[in-house]
Amino acid sequence: MSQELAPPIDTVRAYRSLTQEEATARAWAARHALGDDLVILAHHYQSDEVMDFADFRGDSLELSKVAAAQTEARYILFCGVDFMAESAAILCGPTQTVILPAGDAPCPMAGMTNLAGIEHAWDSLEGMWGAGSLTPLVYQNSSAVVKAFCGRNGGAVCTSSNAEAAITWGLREGKRVLFAPDRYLATNSALALGYDMDQIGLWDRQEDALATGADPNRLVLVAWDGYCSVHRRFTVEDVERIRQEYPGIRVIVHPECTPEVVQASDAAGSTAYIVRAVTEAPPDTRFAIGTELHLVLRLAKENPDKTVVPLRRSSCVAMSRTDVYNLAYSLEHLAAGNPVNVVTVPPDVARDAQTALQRMLEIG
Description:
About 40% of the residues lie in helices and about 15% in strands. By secondary structure, the protein is of the alpha/beta class.
């Protein structure tokens, strides 16, 4: 190590007795001591204080690719939520260690499905349409065991960046798609591909059955009844209000928003798409962005020649669990040779989940 470090404090709670400046300074000292042994990944929804530490920042697909490419670093510290760190642990090498600084940062959407539920939906739909008639697709926002189910059954993981391509891939050879857990991403992607609403079914997770009213013979895709609370908060009234406040403003939303909000907006796209749309726009362009607040505020700060405002202030509580205090806790223990908040996935689960994740990377 390049310098002497103070011994790590026993618990995260004890770190919170430090000032933010003290915690930040200790985190930086440990990070510098670790040097090239460590790579820090941070999702776009992280706070600026955390993002300052990132070697790479991006959306789920971008960071999955980065994690898979980190063949030299001994440690990968992932500033995000649980499913992201699980994916990194699956994609990185066997001698590498993945750390989730928050320790516990569960994505609420990922918690809306489980292995038993997805297996029951799969069995029911295959019983209706026949064995081999269905391709499972799971959004990156899902647990490793759900991803593993997908890998075992010929399916793939997808993100909001490649959901349309993944659905097209899943529908090959006349198959239908079971898409979990985000009903809105599934629906918006299918609509963007030219399918009609009556071709999109809903798996009611409360009733554990295909929602009534659907004609099974018309369906090409069945969406699991899950959602992102951050993006479901946006409404058509929000779009109408922001257009009145800022005449001529361009409204861009994430495809996890409801179809009504997507249709009322000027464009919808992944986090990476939103970042590109803003950064590549000419000066004086005005945007209202319907996605997580930390990203919108950062885009406004980093693009001072444009107007960037939130469609509504909506934040992800799970993402906010990562802060400079648990960063300092994780980094100092790592520098001391005592890793904490290590993310592991059982080998059999990792094997099958990696199959689904690799298909995601191949779909692009």
